Amino acid sequence: MEAIKAFLKRKDIVISGRRYGIDALGAMAQGLFCSLLIGTIVKTLGEQTGLAFLVDVGVYASAMSGAAMAVAIGYALKAPPLVLFSLAAVGYAANALGSTTLSGDPGAGGPLAVLFIAIIAAEFGKAVSKETRVDILVTPLVTILAGVGLSALIAPAIGTAATAVGNIIMWATDLQPFFMGIVVSVVIGMALTLPISSAAICAAFGLTGLAGGAAVAGCCANMVGFAVLSFKENRWGGLVSQGLGTSMLQMGNIVKNPKIWLPAILTSAITGPIATCVFHLEMNGPPVSSGMGTCGLVGQIGVWTGWLSPSEKALANGAAAITPEALDWLGLILISFVLPAVLCWAFGILFRKMGWIKEGDLTLE
User: What gap in Å lies between CA 309 and CA 327, rounded to an integer?
Assistant: First the structure.
Protein backbone atom coordinates (compact mmCIF):
# COMPACT_ATOMS: atom_id res chain seq x y z
CA MET A 1 0.00 0.00 0.00
CA GLU A 2 2.81 2.37 0.87
CA ALA A 3 4.46 1.63 -2.46
CA ILE A 4 1.26 2.60 -4.30
CA LYS A 5 0.97 5.84 -2.32
CA ALA A 6 4.58 6.66 -3.08
CA PHE A 7 4.04 5.97 -6.79
CA LEU A 8 0.93 8.15 -6.94
CA LYS A 9 2.73 10.95 -5.14
CA ARG A 10 5.69 10.72 -7.52
CA LYS A 11 3.32 10.89 -10.48
CA ASP A 12 1.29 13.73 -8.95
CA ILE A 13 -1.89 11.66 -9.19
CA VAL A 14 -4.11 13.17 -6.51
CA ILE A 15 -7.43 11.37 -6.18
CA SER A 16 -9.58 13.99 -4.51
CA GLY A 17 -12.85 15.85 -4.91
CA ARG A 18 -11.02 19.16 -5.18
CA ARG A 19 -8.68 18.01 -7.96
CA TYR A 20 -11.46 16.45 -10.05
CA GLY A 21 -14.59 18.32 -8.97
CA ILE A 22 -13.15 21.82 -8.78
CA ASP A 23 -9.84 22.08 -10.65
CA ALA A 24 -10.74 19.81 -13.58
CA LEU A 25 -14.35 21.01 -13.81
CA GLY A 26 -13.32 24.66 -13.80
CA ALA A 27 -10.66 24.05 -16.44
CA MET A 28 -13.18 22.20 -18.62
CA ALA A 29 -15.41 25.27 -18.58
CA GLN A 30 -12.49 27.43 -19.71
CA GLY A 31 -11.77 25.05 -22.58
CA LEU A 32 -15.42 25.16 -23.57
CA PHE A 33 -15.38 28.95 -23.37
CA CYS A 34 -12.31 29.20 -25.62
CA SER A 35 -13.81 26.99 -28.32
CA LEU A 36 -17.57 26.51 -28.50
CA LEU A 37 -18.58 29.75 -26.83
CA ILE A 38 -16.20 32.03 -28.70
CA GLY A 39 -16.93 30.12 -31.90
CA THR A 40 -20.66 30.65 -31.49
CA ILE A 41 -20.23 34.38 -30.89
CA VAL A 42 -17.96 34.80 -33.91
CA LYS A 43 -20.23 32.69 -36.11
CA THR A 44 -23.29 34.74 -35.11
CA LEU A 45 -21.44 37.97 -35.83
CA GLY A 46 -20.48 36.60 -39.23
CA GLU A 47 -24.04 35.59 -40.02
CA GLN A 48 -25.41 38.99 -39.00
CA THR A 49 -22.76 40.99 -40.88
CA GLY A 50 -22.60 38.74 -43.92
CA LEU A 51 -18.89 38.05 -43.41
CA ALA A 52 -18.39 34.43 -44.46
CA PHE A 53 -14.87 34.39 -43.03
CA LEU A 54 -16.19 34.93 -39.49
CA VAL A 55 -18.73 32.15 -39.98
CA ASP A 56 -15.91 29.78 -40.97
CA VAL A 57 -13.82 30.83 -37.98
CA GLY A 58 -16.76 30.19 -35.68
CA VAL A 59 -17.42 26.75 -37.16
CA TYR A 60 -13.77 25.70 -36.82
CA ALA A 61 -13.52 26.97 -33.24
CA SER A 62 -16.73 25.22 -32.18
CA ALA A 63 -15.64 21.95 -33.78
CA MET A 64 -12.61 21.83 -31.48
CA SER A 65 -14.59 22.05 -28.24
CA GLY A 66 -13.94 18.44 -27.22
CA ALA A 67 -10.20 18.72 -27.75
CA ALA A 68 -10.06 22.10 -25.99
CA MET A 69 -11.92 20.78 -22.94
CA ALA A 70 -9.73 17.70 -22.62
CA VAL A 71 -6.48 19.63 -22.96
CA ALA A 72 -7.70 22.13 -20.36
CA ILE A 73 -8.53 19.28 -17.98
CA GLY A 74 -5.09 17.76 -18.54
CA TYR A 75 -3.49 21.11 -17.79
CA ALA A 76 -5.43 21.33 -14.52
CA LEU A 77 -4.26 17.82 -13.62
CA LYS A 78 -0.66 18.87 -14.33
CA ALA A 79 -0.26 16.33 -17.13
CA PRO A 80 3.19 16.17 -18.79
CA PRO A 81 3.45 17.33 -22.43
CA LEU A 82 2.95 13.99 -24.19
CA VAL A 83 -0.15 13.26 -22.13
CA LEU A 84 -1.48 16.78 -22.60
CA PHE A 85 -1.14 16.71 -26.37
CA SER A 86 -2.64 13.22 -26.62
CA LEU A 87 -5.74 14.36 -24.78
CA ALA A 88 -6.81 16.32 -27.86
CA ALA A 89 -7.78 13.05 -29.56
CA VAL A 90 -9.41 11.76 -26.38
CA GLY A 91 -11.50 14.90 -26.00
CA TYR A 92 -12.64 14.82 -29.60
CA ALA A 93 -13.79 11.21 -29.28
CA ALA A 94 -15.46 11.65 -25.88
CA ASN A 95 -17.32 14.79 -26.97
CA ALA A 96 -18.48 13.27 -30.25
CA LEU A 97 -19.67 10.01 -28.70
CA GLY A 98 -21.09 11.68 -25.59
CA SER A 99 -23.13 14.03 -27.76
CA THR A 100 -25.27 11.09 -28.84
CA THR A 101 -27.53 8.90 -26.74
CA LEU A 102 -27.55 5.11 -26.69
CA SER A 103 -30.37 5.22 -29.22
CA GLY A 104 -28.24 7.31 -31.57
CA ASP A 105 -30.21 10.53 -31.09
CA PRO A 106 -28.45 13.86 -30.44
CA GLY A 107 -27.60 14.30 -26.77
CA ALA A 108 -26.15 16.86 -24.37
CA GLY A 109 -23.59 14.72 -22.59
CA GLY A 110 -20.48 15.65 -24.57
CA PRO A 111 -18.92 17.93 -21.92
CA LEU A 112 -19.75 15.53 -19.09
CA ALA A 113 -18.26 12.61 -21.02
CA VAL A 114 -15.12 14.63 -21.69
CA LEU A 115 -14.81 15.44 -17.98
CA PHE A 116 -14.92 11.83 -16.80
CA ILE A 117 -12.97 10.27 -19.63
CA ALA A 118 -10.26 12.92 -19.93
CA ILE A 119 -9.56 12.63 -16.19
CA ILE A 120 -9.12 8.86 -16.43
CA ALA A 121 -7.05 9.01 -19.61
CA ALA A 122 -4.84 11.75 -18.19
CA GLU A 123 -4.14 9.79 -15.02
CA PHE A 124 -3.34 6.64 -17.01
CA GLY A 125 -1.00 8.66 -19.19
CA LYS A 126 0.68 10.26 -16.18
CA ALA A 127 1.15 6.84 -14.62
CA VAL A 128 3.22 5.51 -17.55
CA SER A 129 4.90 8.79 -18.48
CA LYS A 130 8.71 8.49 -18.58
CA GLU A 131 8.58 4.94 -17.24
CA THR A 132 10.06 3.42 -20.40
CA ARG A 133 12.82 4.22 -22.86
CA VAL A 134 10.26 4.59 -25.63
CA ASP A 135 8.16 7.16 -23.82
CA ILE A 136 7.44 8.98 -27.09
CA LEU A 137 5.40 5.91 -28.15
CA VAL A 138 4.11 4.44 -24.91
CA THR A 139 2.66 7.56 -23.26
CA PRO A 140 0.55 8.79 -26.21
CA LEU A 141 -0.49 5.22 -27.01
CA VAL A 142 -1.72 4.50 -23.47
CA THR A 143 -3.43 7.88 -23.14
CA ILE A 144 -5.25 7.69 -26.45
CA LEU A 145 -6.18 4.02 -26.22
CA ALA A 146 -7.52 4.44 -22.68
CA GLY A 147 -9.45 7.57 -23.57
CA VAL A 148 -10.88 6.55 -26.93
CA GLY A 149 -11.61 3.04 -25.67
CA LEU A 150 -13.53 4.43 -22.69
CA SER A 151 -15.32 6.85 -25.00
CA ALA A 152 -16.60 3.97 -27.11
CA LEU A 153 -17.69 2.05 -24.01
CA ILE A 154 -19.32 4.65 -21.79
CA ALA A 155 -19.64 8.03 -23.56
CA PRO A 156 -23.04 7.26 -25.15
CA ALA A 157 -24.37 6.13 -21.76
CA ILE A 158 -23.11 9.35 -20.17
CA GLY A 159 -24.74 11.25 -23.01
CA THR A 160 -28.03 9.48 -22.36
CA ALA A 161 -27.91 10.17 -18.61
CA ALA A 162 -26.92 13.83 -18.97
CA THR A 163 -29.58 14.41 -21.61
CA ALA A 164 -32.21 12.83 -19.40
CA VAL A 165 -31.30 14.98 -16.40
CA GLY A 166 -31.17 18.15 -18.49
CA ASN A 167 -34.47 17.36 -20.16
CA ILE A 168 -36.12 16.74 -16.79
CA ILE A 169 -34.90 20.11 -15.49
CA MET A 170 -36.10 21.92 -18.60
CA TRP A 171 -39.41 20.02 -18.67
CA ALA A 172 -40.03 20.82 -15.00
CA THR A 173 -39.19 24.48 -15.59
CA ASP A 174 -41.62 24.66 -18.50
CA LEU A 175 -44.28 22.90 -16.40
CA GLN A 176 -43.70 24.88 -13.19
CA PRO A 177 -41.87 28.04 -14.24
CA PHE A 178 -42.42 29.78 -10.89
CA PHE A 179 -41.10 27.13 -8.51
CA MET A 180 -38.44 25.78 -10.85
CA GLY A 181 -37.44 29.34 -11.69
CA ILE A 182 -36.58 29.75 -8.01
CA VAL A 183 -34.80 26.39 -7.72
CA VAL A 184 -32.68 26.69 -10.86
CA SER A 185 -31.82 30.33 -10.23
CA VAL A 186 -30.75 29.76 -6.63
CA VAL A 187 -28.82 26.53 -7.26
CA ILE A 188 -26.90 27.71 -10.34
CA GLY A 189 -26.27 31.11 -8.77
CA MET A 190 -24.76 29.47 -5.71
CA ALA A 191 -22.70 27.15 -7.90
CA LEU A 192 -21.25 30.20 -9.65
CA THR A 193 -20.07 31.66 -6.34
CA LEU A 194 -18.79 28.36 -4.96
CA PRO A 195 -15.38 27.14 -6.17
CA ILE A 196 -17.02 24.92 -8.79
CA SER A 197 -18.08 25.74 -12.31
CA SER A 198 -21.68 26.73 -12.90
CA ALA A 199 -20.85 27.07 -16.60
CA ALA A 200 -19.63 23.48 -16.76
CA ILE A 201 -22.74 22.26 -14.94
CA CYS A 202 -25.04 24.03 -17.39
CA ALA A 203 -23.01 22.71 -20.31
CA ALA A 204 -22.99 19.16 -18.95
CA PHE A 205 -26.77 19.05 -18.73
CA GLY A 206 -27.42 21.18 -21.80
CA LEU A 207 -29.57 23.77 -20.03
CA THR A 208 -31.34 26.00 -22.54
CA GLY A 209 -34.78 27.57 -22.80
CA LEU A 210 -36.51 28.82 -19.66
CA ALA A 211 -34.22 26.78 -17.42
CA GLY A 212 -31.24 28.48 -19.05
CA GLY A 213 -32.89 31.85 -18.51
CA ALA A 214 -33.40 31.09 -14.81
CA ALA A 215 -29.75 30.07 -14.56
CA VAL A 216 -28.70 33.39 -16.09
CA ALA A 217 -30.84 35.19 -13.52
CA GLY A 218 -29.23 33.35 -10.62
CA CYS A 219 -25.71 33.98 -11.83
CA CYS A 220 -26.37 37.68 -12.39
CA ALA A 221 -27.96 37.95 -8.94
CA ASN A 222 -24.72 36.74 -7.37
CA MET A 223 -22.25 38.65 -9.55
CA VAL A 224 -24.00 42.01 -9.83
CA GLY A 225 -25.47 41.54 -6.35
CA PHE A 226 -22.14 41.11 -4.60
CA ALA A 227 -20.58 43.87 -6.71
CA VAL A 228 -23.19 46.37 -5.50
CA LEU A 229 -23.53 44.93 -2.00
CA SER A 230 -19.80 45.33 -1.33
CA PHE A 231 -19.34 48.68 -3.12
CA LYS A 232 -18.93 50.47 0.20
CA GLU A 233 -15.94 48.29 1.03
CA ASN A 234 -14.40 47.60 -2.39
CA ARG A 235 -15.42 50.62 -4.49
CA TRP A 236 -15.00 50.59 -8.26
CA GLY A 237 -12.32 47.91 -8.40
CA GLY A 238 -14.60 45.50 -6.56
CA LEU A 239 -17.55 46.48 -8.71
CA VAL A 240 -15.71 45.53 -11.90
CA SER A 241 -13.88 42.44 -10.56
CA GLN A 242 -17.09 40.91 -9.20
CA GLY A 243 -19.63 42.32 -11.63
CA LEU A 244 -17.70 41.42 -14.78
CA GLY A 245 -15.37 38.84 -13.24
CA THR A 246 -16.70 36.48 -10.61
CA SER A 247 -18.51 36.55 -7.28
CA MET A 248 -16.26 33.65 -6.26
CA LEU A 249 -13.92 36.35 -4.91
CA GLN A 250 -16.26 36.58 -1.90
CA MET A 251 -15.92 32.88 -1.03
CA GLY A 252 -13.38 33.54 1.74
CA ASN A 253 -15.68 36.10 3.32
CA ILE A 254 -18.67 33.77 2.99
CA VAL A 255 -16.79 31.09 4.94
CA LYS A 256 -16.19 33.62 7.74
CA ASN A 257 -19.78 34.90 7.73
CA PRO A 258 -22.27 32.89 5.63
CA LYS A 259 -24.99 35.51 6.24
CA ILE A 260 -23.39 37.87 3.70
CA TRP A 261 -24.58 35.44 1.00
CA LEU A 262 -28.26 35.83 1.90
CA PRO A 263 -28.89 39.05 -0.10
CA ALA A 264 -27.66 37.41 -3.32
CA ILE A 265 -29.53 34.17 -2.64
CA LEU A 266 -32.78 35.98 -1.88
CA THR A 267 -32.29 38.14 -4.96
CA SER A 268 -31.85 35.07 -7.16
CA ALA A 269 -35.00 33.55 -5.66
CA ILE A 270 -36.89 36.64 -6.81
CA THR A 271 -35.33 37.27 -10.22
CA GLY A 272 -35.50 33.59 -11.26
CA PRO A 273 -39.31 33.36 -11.41
CA ILE A 274 -39.55 36.91 -12.79
CA ALA A 275 -37.32 35.76 -15.65
CA THR A 276 -39.39 32.64 -16.32
CA CYS A 277 -42.92 33.87 -15.61
CA VAL A 278 -42.89 37.57 -16.49
CA PHE A 279 -40.36 38.00 -19.27
CA HIS A 280 -40.17 34.36 -20.43
CA LEU A 281 -36.42 34.87 -20.73
CA GLU A 282 -34.83 31.96 -22.58
CA MET A 283 -31.19 31.11 -23.07
CA ASN A 284 -31.02 29.47 -26.47
CA GLY A 285 -27.36 30.13 -27.11
CA PRO A 286 -24.67 27.63 -26.06
CA PRO A 287 -25.71 25.97 -22.77
CA VAL A 288 -22.39 27.01 -21.19
CA SER A 289 -23.56 30.64 -21.42
CA SER A 290 -26.38 29.85 -18.98
CA GLY A 291 -23.87 29.54 -16.17
CA MET A 292 -21.67 32.56 -16.97
CA GLY A 293 -23.84 35.43 -15.74
CA THR A 294 -22.26 38.82 -16.40
CA CYS A 295 -18.72 37.41 -16.62
CA GLY A 296 -17.47 39.28 -19.67
CA LEU A 297 -21.17 39.73 -20.48
CA VAL A 298 -21.12 36.15 -21.78
CA GLY A 299 -24.59 35.37 -20.43
CA GLN A 300 -26.10 38.37 -22.16
CA ILE A 301 -24.27 37.67 -25.42
CA GLY A 302 -25.51 34.07 -25.19
CA VAL A 303 -29.11 35.23 -24.92
CA TRP A 304 -28.57 37.52 -27.91
CA THR A 305 -27.00 34.81 -30.07
CA GLY A 306 -29.84 32.50 -29.03
CA TRP A 307 -32.36 35.00 -30.31
CA LEU A 308 -30.71 35.29 -33.68
CA SER A 309 -29.20 31.84 -34.17
CA PRO A 310 -30.18 29.18 -31.58
CA SER A 311 -27.60 26.55 -30.66
CA GLU A 312 -27.98 22.94 -31.80
CA LYS A 313 -29.13 21.93 -28.33
CA ALA A 314 -31.75 24.68 -28.27
CA LEU A 315 -32.95 23.77 -31.76
CA ALA A 316 -33.30 20.15 -30.66
CA ASN A 317 -35.56 21.37 -27.86
CA GLY A 318 -37.81 23.26 -30.24
CA ALA A 319 -36.25 26.74 -30.14
CA ALA A 320 -36.46 29.01 -33.17
CA ALA A 321 -34.73 32.22 -34.19
CA ILE A 322 -36.61 35.40 -33.30
CA THR A 323 -36.32 39.12 -33.84
CA PRO A 324 -36.07 40.51 -30.29
CA GLU A 325 -38.63 43.13 -29.36
CA ALA A 326 -38.47 45.90 -26.77
CA LEU A 327 -39.89 43.61 -24.04
CA ASP A 328 -37.16 41.03 -24.69
CA TRP A 329 -34.42 43.64 -24.31
CA LEU A 330 -36.13 45.13 -21.24
CA GLY A 331 -36.31 41.71 -19.60
CA LEU A 332 -32.67 40.97 -20.31
CA ILE A 333 -31.50 44.30 -18.90
CA LEU A 334 -33.71 44.14 -15.81
CA ILE A 335 -32.86 40.51 -14.98
CA SER A 336 -29.15 40.90 -15.69
CA PHE A 337 -28.35 44.26 -14.14
CA VAL A 338 -31.10 46.41 -12.67
CA LEU A 339 -32.99 44.01 -10.40
CA PRO A 340 -29.89 42.27 -9.00
CA ALA A 341 -28.36 45.65 -8.15
CA VAL A 342 -31.48 47.15 -6.57
CA LEU A 343 -32.67 44.07 -4.68
CA CYS A 344 -29.27 43.04 -3.33
CA TRP A 345 -28.57 46.62 -2.28
CA ALA A 346 -31.92 46.78 -0.44
CA PHE A 347 -31.39 43.44 1.30
CA GLY A 348 -27.90 44.60 2.22
CA ILE A 349 -29.24 47.71 3.97
CA LEU A 350 -31.69 45.54 5.93
CA PHE A 351 -29.09 42.98 7.00
CA ARG A 352 -26.57 45.66 7.96
CA LYS A 353 -29.21 47.25 10.22
CA MET A 354 -29.95 43.81 11.70
CA GLY A 355 -26.26 43.32 12.41
CA TRP A 356 -25.97 40.27 10.16
CA ILE A 357 -23.49 42.07 7.92
CA LYS A 358 -20.84 44.10 9.71
CA GLU A 359 -18.24 46.58 8.60
CA GLY A 360 -15.47 44.79 6.73
CA ASP A 361 -17.36 41.53 6.19
CA LEU A 362 -17.35 42.07 2.41
CA THR A 363 -13.86 43.52 2.01
CA LEU A 364 -11.80 41.73 -0.65
CA GLU A 365 -8.19 41.08 0.25
Answer: 19
